[in-house]
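Hi R.,

Here's the chain you asked about this morning:
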Amino acid sequence: MAEKVIRVAGGQGFWGDLLTAPIDQVRKGPIDYLMLDYLAEVTMSILQKQRNRDSEAGYARDFVSLMHEILQDCVEKNVKVLSNAGGVNVAGCAEKIREAAVELGLSGKVKIGVVTGDDVLSDLDKWIADGVEINSMDDGTPLASIRDKVQSANVYLGAEALVEALGRGANIIVGGRLTDTGLTLAPLMHEFGWKFDDWDRVSAGTIAGHIIECGAQSSGGNCQYDWKNIPDMANIGFPIIEAQADGTFIVTKHDGTGGRVNVQSVTEQLLYEMGDPKSYITPDVVADFSSIHLQDAGENRVKVFGIKGNPKTDFYKVSIAYSDGWKSVGTLVYSWPDAYEKAQAADKILRQRLENLGLEFDVILTEFVGVSATHGHLALSSPPYEGGVDAPSGGRGGSLQDIPEVQLRVAVRGHNKAHVERFTKEIAPLILTGPPGVTGFAGGRPKVEEIMAYFPALIPKSLIRTNVSIVDA
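And the predicted structure, written out as tokens:
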């Protein structure tokens, strides 16, 4: 008898990822589960602000549109879907999925698992009053110091509630701040009956989730190695995990899709967000990335094995977002000749005018896009500019004087909104009152945007209560 293999497909690396990817994962080959990761740290605060304006908002609406498209396929092929698209309105998102199922004639065939408990915004004041230590993991700042500015607070929940939902028959699961890795780990624990303290297998499932959590980043997208020869990127295939009960798994993609899965592409994704390789902490396990073995297993197939793990901690990470002032970004493009020199002069003029107006900012940041925006001062002290190497005029590889165009990008941030708003009125005047050769100014004045700052902290798991409910279509 062939050993049982479970296929978990990654279909979404972030909210706004390739819309056709999850559709292709369901339709272009066999899979058992589709995991969809919609949430980044700042996304929760955006969703909370949306819900503050509209009580029915607060979730990733793209997920509902997607389910309208693929729900029939998922039911027919018995593909289960796990997603954190619920944001800060999990119940509202689940109701929209239920309505879609009814509309598609799938009543009685869809069970929606609803996972809640990650949203702890309403608990913060009680915890502070009770003396619970909630301090920034970055600098130790106490939560009380920014409490009045907090917009959202969500705990990173692991796989346990997802496993429960699967065990209760859910074929679509919607949650809030579920970990990226848990969306892949949970199906494997459910299918293979892994124990929550089987640290090596839980670690393996976590690493499988880490490999596919960023979508095509492990199947050729955003890949440095031999990137020019990665085939058919326009039709890139998203990654799929083919897992076995012992914790070994294959990273692959559907046949006939673009992109490339090899040891190098998987390695690059493994290094994403890497801290201490021996201690990759998740709610479910402390995974040991130094134990990972990768092996070429054929075209677009990489075997991953030998993974070790250690017991989970007693804390959840909580992602807190708070208002921290205002920002605005303005741009102008200066053309050859002397493009860089013109941009520098315009920046100096602008700064002097802001000073003359008495405007105060926490930060004024200038970037010269085309010269130093990506690598900063390193770009000016390294080839092709070092020493002013001679090259044809306008060619990339000559001196700074040969640069055909430079985008001046100036950003300000501060807590005085009126000062930031006045900055937005000082960019356009440079066109006729500054250096010559300006282009690229379109779209009107720069916008003023609220800054959402990130406050990561730890909270004892004993304070968190998760809930799993099942909604029948």
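The chain has a mean pLDDT of 93.

Let me know if you need anything else.
M.
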